[in-house]
Amino acid sequence: MTEATTTNGARPTVALVHGAFADSSGWDDVVAQLLADGVGVRAVSNPLRGITHDAAYVASALSQIEGPVLAVGHSYGGAVITNAALRAGNVVGLVYVAGFAPDEGETLQDIESDSKDSVLTTALLQWSYPTGDSGTQTEFAIDPDRFHDAFASDVSEERARVMAATQRPISALGFGEPTAAPAWKSLPSWAVIPTGDRAAGSDVLRTMAARAGATVTEAEGSHVIMVSQPQVVTAVVRQALQAVSA
After folding, report:
1. CA angle 54, 56, 62 (to 5 degrees)
2. Which residues belong to the signal peptide in this entry (predicted)?
3. Cβ proximity of 77 and 99 under 8 Å
4. pTM of the predicted model as reported, rounded to 2 decimal places
């Protein structure tokens, strides 16, 4: 695995993009395991300001990584890499970790409305923030009292409280802006689907992964499976690396 190279002679770098209500620290154990394999890893901060803004930012970050990139997105980060990968120009594969893989014109709020497994919309708090141009925008966070049940049910209550206290809110534009041409239509993809995902909803994750033609791995766990079971996520990333390498 550590010797894998792409056809142009460069080893793929794994770029990890976190989702809403989180930050890059959720990838810590996955990063450690990949680094131990000798794999190049980059965690990309996701601004969480909306699909258009975030995809432009992440595409720029990915394009500045030398050589080919395997883009890995958790949750909302999956929607971001769906919109950013083709613009970056060097992405050779996609891995969705409890991740949204929307089609062109779809919004995440429309996708979530079809889920029977998700309780996220009932667990959100909202408020307004200034945009800097004399306007305001709505953003969402998860009610700390609902965080463990809705987002991270398979981590300890103590850890869930820490995650809730340090969560990053997301702009409403993240849920309401439509997706552009999706990268999964032209790039190979893999999906890790937690069977107990009550945030994105295991049901809609399965539907999106099937539509994308992704290689699917299901595992018992919550929406934050990269925190509770990093070995499962790392194994899928290794599988994807092997497929897009050599």
Report:
1. 100
2. none
3. yes
4. 0.94
